[in-house]
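Summary of Year 1 activities. Much of the first year was spent building the evaluation harness for sequence design. The harness presents a backbone, in tokenized form, and records the residue chosen at every position. We chose the following record to illustrate the format because it has been used consistently in internal testing since the harness was completed.
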């Protein structure tokens, strides 16, 4: 409805992200608790990942696999921006997220980078 549209425009990207993320990611996380089955130098166990709303919308299917993989590497995911130390953004919004969130202890990366780091979608020859 128009009211919903108007209301959602008033929400910042982050608030919207957090609301949608919480629901979607919570359901994935609840099925992704198998830890430390694999090691990957890029996916560090102390990392906590969160995803922008655009990334979730656009890559939801692959994201399920990626989140499972992140847990398998011993790292975690959260729907809460303030708990994350790696924020995964779409390429277009990268600058905004970097300006808003990047600190000494918080990295902003693109979905593409994360996908490359996991290596799980590389076609096997």
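For this record, the design step produced the sequence shown next.
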């Amino acid at each position: 409805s128009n009211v919903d549209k108007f209301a959602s425009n008033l929400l910042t990207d982050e608030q919207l992200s957090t609301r949608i993320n919480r629901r979607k990611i919570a359901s994935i996380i609840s099925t992704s608790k198998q830890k430390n089955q694999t090691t990957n130098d890029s996916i560090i166990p102390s990392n906590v990942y969160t995803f922008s709303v655009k990334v979730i919308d656009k890559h939801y299917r692959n994201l399920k696999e990626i989140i499972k993989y992140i847990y398998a590497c011993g790292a975690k995911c959260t729907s809460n921006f303030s708990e994350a130390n790696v924020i995964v953004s779409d390429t277009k919004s990268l600058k905004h997220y970097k300006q808003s969130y990047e600190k000494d202890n918080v990295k902003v990366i693109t979905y593409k980078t994360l996908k490359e780091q996991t290596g799980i979608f590389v076609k096997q020859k």
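The longest helix spans residues 53-72. Quantitative recovery figures across the full test set are reported in Table 2.
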